[in-house]
Amino acid sequence: MIFGAKGAQRSFMPNPYQVLGVSPLAGPEEIKSAFRRLAKTYHPDAGSKDPKNHERFHEVATAYDLLRRKAKSSDPASAKKTWSPRASFTSKAAQTKPQEAKADSAPSAEKTPPVEPEMPPSFDAAPQPETPKKHAAFSDFLSSLRKIGRRAFRSTDADHPYDLSIPFLDAVSGTRRRLTLRNGKSLDVHIPAGVEDGQQIRLRGQGEVGLPTLETGDAIVTIAIAPHPVFRREGADIHTDTAVTLPEAVLGTKLNVPTVDGDVALTVPAGSNSGTVLRLKGKGLPYPPGKRRLGRGDQYVSLVLVLPPKPDDALKDFVATWAAGLTHKPRKS
Questions:
Q1: Where are the domains of the chain?
Q2: In which order are the strands placed within the sheet that holds 299-305?
Q3: How far apart are the first and last CA of the chain?
Q4: What is the third-level CATH fold of 2-129?
Q5: Quick one: CA torsion of 11, 12, 13, 19, rounded to 10 degrees?
Q6: Which CATH number fits the domain 236-324, given the four candidates 3.40.605.10, 1.25.40.10, 2.60.260.20, 3.40.50.300?
Q7: Chain-centre distance of CA 291, in angstroms?
Q8: What share of the chain is helix, strand, coil (3-state, %, to 5)?
Q9: pTM of the model
Q10: pLDDT (tens digit, 9 = 90+) per residue, 237-283?
């Protein structure tokens, strides 16, 4: 206990170095590490039912804030100064001249009220006791800081990154995948239909306590989509290749082609060339979440003309006869 003017009793807060369990010579990184460790233990979201944890967490946060602010407002040597709960105070009353002090002791109609000792700006001295009004204002101030911190000053180092690979067709239909967090906790991650490769999913409150807001961070899951042997993706559209024979390309035909929904019939018009692209409307992927467009993309099928590996004599004779009267020139001279 510390006594001020007229023997008024004052309480002083615990040594912040002792609260955080660090040496008075500890550097900023060591102090920050100690705070994080204790904040994880006593944070209200840690799940402990001990009613003293809330008080302990407030004590830890206050001690860290004091040390952090002192380190910013002074040089490194003074920031590491040993805590002295009995540091002397300099009051205005003690600074008065002897004759003024004597005059104060004499009877007078206008007696000067007792002067409270001045608190130095450093936290080496005991803090002034807070009135209920001051305490309420300080609580409101802290509450507003927390709200601002959530929106603008969130600490990104409180977020934990994770990678999650899924098959191509799961990206089309959407799925759920089991994810194990760093703390050993497992949870199901909902992956929406149409998710894109490299897209991130945020799991709120699954990170760690961050600084300076003391808010719990998030788990950031980055989706990796495995390639497919048949389908190629471009946005919400799917591209595939389909082989056609010479008669099918010349005369036209109907083919069954694979889509993400199963095989569908595709009409190949007569006179199609190798490289002709045909569209299957609405057979692509759902548009990714967050896009303004609804529905699905399309599937584009590229025709690939495939000749027999060893053309027989009949085919050779036919082509030779047909080419004799050919006037079409595909290459410009």
A1: 2-129, 156-225, 236-324
A2: 232-234, 237-244, 299-305, 277-280
A3: 104
A4: Helix Hairpins (1.10.287)
A5: -120
A6: 2.60.260.20
A7: 21
A8: 30, 20, 45
A9: 0.54
A10: 999 999 999 999 999 999 999 999 999 999 999 999 999 999 999 99
